[in-house]
Structure formats: C-alpha cells, structure tokens
Amino acid sequence: xxxLSLLCYSQLKKCRVYSACRLTAISRAAGILSARRKSIKxxxxxxxxxxxxPLLVSCYRLKIQDGKLRVQLGDKGCEHILxxxxxxxxxxxxxxxxxxxxxxGTSLSIGVSKEVEPEPRALRGAVGIxxxxxxxxVGNEEKVTYYDMTKVVEIWENxxxxxxxxxxxxxxxxxxIASKYGRRGSERVRQIIHGVTKRIVQEAKEKR
Length: 208
Fold this sequence. Notes:
The structure is a single chain. The chain is an alpha+beta fold and 208 residues long. The chain has three domains: 2-41; 56-114, no CATH class; 128-207, no CATH class. The protein is built from five helices and nine strands, in the order H-H-E-E-E-E-H-E-E-E-E-E-H-H. It has helices spanning 2-13, 19-41, 85-91, 150-164, 171-207; strands at residues 56-58, 63-65, 68-73, 77-82, 96-103, 108-114, 128-131, 135-139, 144-148. The strands form three sheets. The chain has a three-stranded antiparallel beta sheet. The longest helix is centred in the last third of the chain and has 37 residues, at 171-207.
C-alpha cells in the first residue's frame, strides 16, 4: 500500500477528489491487487484489476447528528445521510465506535468497533482458525478439527460453467438468468459456511 501511495497519490491530487478519500481509495485498490495476486499464485485466471462498482469509503471525521451520518467533504462542507430506525438503535450503544463507512449507489455500510473486557477466569484456552480455499482447520495443542470445504468450490465452479454456457443473443435475458444462478449459488454457499461456523462456535462455548 505504501508503494501504491507513492506512485499514484500525486496523480489523485489532480482529480477532484477530497483529500480524506484519497488514502481509502488507494487502500481499496491495494486490496483488489492483493486478491488478484493470490488468485495468480493459486493458478486461477485473473483479469486486469478493476473496481466492479463505484463506491465511496472514508474513515475520517464521522459523526451521528440528528439521526443522520455526517460526512466531512473537505474543510468547508459536509453531507448528511439519513439513517433508518434500526441503524440508529444499534448505534445508540455508547460503547460502539464508528470507524468507517462505505457508500454505494444503493447502500450504506457502517463499520463499528467495541472494546470487550476479557474474562480470564472463565476461559480455559484458545483455538486458532486457518482458512484455506478447500478446507477450514480449527484447533490448538489438544485437538485439531478439519472441515472439508470442497463443496463450496464445486458450487462456484459449476455456477461459472453454467453461466458461461449461455448463448442467448439478448444480453438482458442472459444477465437476468445469470443473476438467478448467482443468487442460488451464493445462498447454497452461505448455508454451508453458516453450518460450519455454527459448529465451531458451539464447540468453543462448550469447552470454554
């Protein structure tokens, strides 16, 4: 990220971009490049890196004011984004700290953090989690548990294969059908991951 900042920060100065957003834009680009580098190392085809949708990310001068998120736009102005009741209820917790926000054309995501006091007397130990493409390993010195996640990879490979086989001339119909298969694949993957993580948390609670 430091190298990327040195290469392009001066170029971003020429654009009409708020200074607070330059570093977060560079951070976003660094994340895209990092993911592409990992794909290449694993032998997967990787296209030229690009941002799939326009978005705005910032972590500077954020504040909740009169039921709205106040976003600083430079030194002279700010923008207020109206928040719904559920979001305001969650953010009413005084122990939460607003770290950042991500704004797209249709959604607003707010990143928060919370300080949690550990309970050393109630805990017996700790476990480590190693996430890989086709497996998930959880364990410590006493026990190691291996979860096979090959099914997740197979679901996405099958989805890509099915979508790639479409030969309809109408782009809108092809995009609609592709979205349908994409949502179906995402839901199946979500259920598998949820089942595995639920078992991990349940075992961790039982053994404290």
